[in-house]
Specification:
With about 180 residues, the chain is α+β, with helices and mostly antiparallel strands. About 20% of the residues lie in helices and about 40% in strands. The chain has 2 domains: about 80 residues; about 90 residues, no CATH class. A 6-stranded mixed beta sheet has the order 1-6-5-4-3-2. Strands 7-8-9 form a 3-stranded antiparallel beta sheet. A 3-stranded antiparallel beta sheet has the order 10-11-12.
């Protein structure tokens, strides 16, 4: 197995392959249809992107911001397709059950209801988890971006809890 190559502007060019994803062009190699996956989608989005050809990691993009605008946009769209995390825009209700809570939300992809099993393990501030999860300390300590993982391992994000409608913040306050 060969090591993945480091892909940077000048040595690699990404072009659209339509529904198939992206085509990677590198010197001395035939064009390849590739997919991309973020290595650190929460803690370091846009950096350290794995590039796969036929499910084999063939390259790593250290930082997409170094690529020309058109290629950044192509990479960004492909990453969104591969790693969809709906943004919660409103919390309609959070109902506590014995072992879970039911969240009724509105996201940027429409209305969603989902179950969250454990607050301490399934609600996190951006890329970090103090004492296992979110707490009043994180809210007071300036951690405004939250990630919620439901019982089916789907992830949702609240980009800035302070910007939620007042009623949504009140529901959130009860579970953290």
């Amino acid at each position: 197995m060969t090591e993945p190559e480091i892909l940077a502007p000048g040595s690699a060019v990404f072009v659209s392959a339509g529904e198939k994803g992206l085509v990677l062009r590198t010197a001395g190699r035939p064009d390849r249809v590739v997919t991309v996956r973020p290595m650190f989608p929460v803690s370091n989005p846009g950096k350290f992107i794995s590039v796969y050809c036929e499910d084999v990691e063939t390259g790593i993009v250290p930082d997409i911001s170094l690529f020309p605008r058109e290629q950044r946009e192509l990479l960004g769209k492909e990453l969104e397709h591969q790693y969809l995390v709906p943004r919660i825009l409103e919390i309609r209700s959070i109902t506590d059950g014995t072992d879970y809570s039911l969240w009724d939300t509105v996201t940027d992809h429409g209305a969603r209801k989902f179950y969250v099993k454990s607050r301490s393990e399934n609600i996190h501030s951006r890329g970090r988890s103090r004492a296992g999860g979110v707490s009043r300390g994180i809210i007071a300590g300036g951690m405004f971006r939250l990630f919620i993982t439901d019982m089916e391992n789907c992830r949702y994000q609240i980009e800035d809890w302070r910007k939620l409608p007042r009623a949504s913040r009140q529901f959130l306050d009860k579970v953290i």
